C-alpha cells in the first residue's frame, strides 16, 4: 500500500549488486540468479527496474569493484541511480525516477541486506512507499 497520491505503479529496485560488494558473498551465484529471476519477472509484468550503484572510498567509480556484476540483465533504458549513502533515496534522484514512472510501491532486492537494503527500506517507508 502506498500513501503517495496518483502513483499506482510498482518498480523493482536492485541495490548494490556490484563486484566489490558481492565478490566473496555467501552463495553469490544463487543470489544473483534469484535477482535475475526477479528482474525477468518484473520485465514480463511491465514493471520498471531501477538499478542502484554505490560508490565510496572502497568502491571507487569506474573501477572493476564498482561495476555491476556481469551476470545482471541491465537494459539500456533502465535508470541507474548513483549513491554515496546507505539509503538509496538520500542525495540521489531515486525519488524523481520513481515519481516520473508513477511508482508508489517498491520491491527492493540487492546486496548488503543488513546495511544499504535495510536503509533504503526505511527510506521508502518514511517517504510513503
Short structural description:
It is built from four helices and four strands; from the N terminus they run E-H-H-E-E-H-E-H. With 129 residues, the chain is α/β, with parallel strands linked by helices.
Number of helices: 4
Q: What radius of gyration results from the CA coordinates?
A: 14 Å
Largest beta sheet, briefly? 4 strands, parallel
Q: Which strand order spans the largest sheet, edge to edge or round the barrel?
A: 3-2-1-4
User: What proportion of the residues is helical, as a percent range?
Assistant: 25-40%
Globally, the shape reads: globular
Alpha-carbon distance between the two ends: 7 Å
Kindly report the average pLDDT value.
Answer: 95
Count every beta strand, where a strand is a DSSP E run of 2 or more residues.
Answer: 4
Work out the strand percent.
Answer: 15-25%
Tell me what the structure shows:
The chain has 129 residues and is of the alpha/beta class. The protein is 33% helix and 19% strand. It contains four helices and four strands. The chain has helices spanning 19-22, 28-44, 94-100, 113-126; strands at 9-15, 49-54, 80-83, 103-110. The chain has a four-stranded parallel β-sheet with strand order 3-2-1-4, with helices on both faces. The chain is globular and about 40 Å long. The model has no long low-confidence stretch (mean pLDDT 95).
